[in-house]
């Protein structure tokens, strides 16, 4: 199986901060674009693995970070990890990336 690499267009969308910050997607669309069923997304939400943008709303909507988590968790599940291990690994990776960018931000100040 050939490994896909990032194209310039892929990199450009990942660097479009205004777009990424504005991404708020309803659960049905999240399910459509990720291939993860709504029922599974709701379950992960109930377990606190992902969080809707507005917890007080009756409509579940998710931001870029949570969509990213959904995709990464599903990939790990597909590789055979349990949900708990997958969620923990994704959370640890997100924390590690955030720490790196915090250090970068501090070094630029």
From TrEMBL:
<dbReference type="InterPro" id="IPR000551">
    <property type="entry name" value="MerR-type_HTH_dom"/>
</dbReference>
<keyword id="KW-0678">Repressor</keyword>
<dbReference type="InterPro" id="IPR009061">
    <property type="entry name" value="DNA-bd_dom_put_sf"/>
</dbReference>
<keyword id="KW-0238">DNA-binding</keyword>
<protein>
    <submittedName>
        <fullName>MerR-like DNA binding protein</fullName>
    </submittedName>
</protein>
<dbReference type="InterPro" id="IPR047057">
    <property type="entry name" value="MerR_fam"/>
</dbReference>
<feature type="domain" description="HTH merR-type">
    <location>
        <begin position="27"/>
        <end position="84"/>
    </location>
</feature>
<dbReference type="GO" id="GO:0003700">
    <property type="term" value="F:DNA-binding transcription factor activity"/>
</dbReference>
<keyword id="KW-0805">Transcription regulation</keyword>
<dbReference type="GO" id="GO:0003677">
    <property type="term" value="F:DNA binding"/>
</dbReference>
<dbReference type="Pfam" id="PF13411">
    <property type="entry name" value="MerR_1"/>
</dbReference>
<keyword id="KW-0804">Transcription</keyword>
């Amino acid at each position: 199986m050939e490994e896909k690499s990032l194209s310039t267009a892929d990199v450009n969308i990942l660097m479009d901060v205004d777009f990424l910050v504005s991404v708020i997607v309803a659960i049905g669309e999240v399910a459509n674009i990720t291939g993860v069923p709504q029922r599974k997304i709701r379950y992960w939400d109930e377990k606190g693995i992902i969080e809707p943008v507005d917890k007080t709303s009756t409509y579940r909507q998710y931001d870029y970070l949570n969509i990213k988590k959904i995709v990464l968790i599903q990939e790990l599940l597909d590789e055979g990890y349990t949900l708990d291990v997958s969620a923990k690994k994704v959370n640890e990776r997100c924390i590690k990336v955030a720490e790196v960018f915090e250090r970068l931000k501090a070094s630029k100040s």
